[in-house]
Write a structure and sequence with these properties.
- The chain has helices at 4-24, 34-38, 65-68, 109-116, 141-146; strands at residues 29-31, 43-45, 55-61, 70-77, 80-81, 91-97, 101-107, 124-128, 134-140, 152-157.
- It has 159 residues and is an alpha+beta fold.
- The chain has a single domain (4-157), classed as Trna Endonuclease, Chain: A, domain 1 (3-Layer(aba) Sandwich).
């Protein structure tokens, strides 16, 4: 099982922080549950109160980003595309821990994938995760920020 359960518990902290952030700002939001719903992401919220236009968010927590300076995106495993390449979410929400807050970047999945798989982008691919079965796209946080790949940025207090 590797560190799966520990990683799941740590990533739940990020999901809870994003959910609380949205609710504290007056948005209607809830966590998606069950395998079927979670194919759409982790959280559904209704921007600008429009209950007819929900937005699904895939939350990615990277506890190593503070130390490495990289953003790491899972893109495949030995069975095919996974992670950001398979999500049906409207936005990928990337949560980076900092000393007293979470730095949060929202990405449009199509724009992010185009950037990561563009040969001109400064992206490195490596195997990692449990038994190194996952293909990961690694990019310097400073690069992805300066390239303007993200579409929104938040800071959330880390309680």
């Amino acid at each position: 099982m590797g560190n799966f359960l520990k990683d799941l518990a740590e990533s739940q902290v990020a999901v809870d922080a994003v959910l609380d952030y949205l609710i504290d700002r007056g948005f209607v939001a809830h966590e998606l549950e069950g395998k079927r719903e979670q194919k759409r992401g982790d959280i559904r919220y209704y921007p600008e109160g429009d209950m007819d236009k929900p937005m699904d968010l895939e939350i990615k927590y990277d506890k190593m980003s503070k130390r490495t300076g990289n953003m790491c995106f899972e893109v495949a495993n030995n069975k095919g595309m996974t992670g950001i390449c398979k999500t049906k979410a409207d936005r990928i929400v990337y949560v980076c821990p900092s000393t007293d807050k979470f730095e949060v970047y929202l990405f449009d999945p199509t724009t992010l994938k185009e950037f990561l798989f563009n040969p001109a982008s400064d992206v490195k691919f490596a195997n990692g995760g449990d038994k190194k079965r996952f293909m990961l796209a690694l990019v310097k946080k400073t690069t992805i920020i300066s390239e303007g790949v993200w579409c929104q940025r938040w800071e959330i207090p880390n309680a």
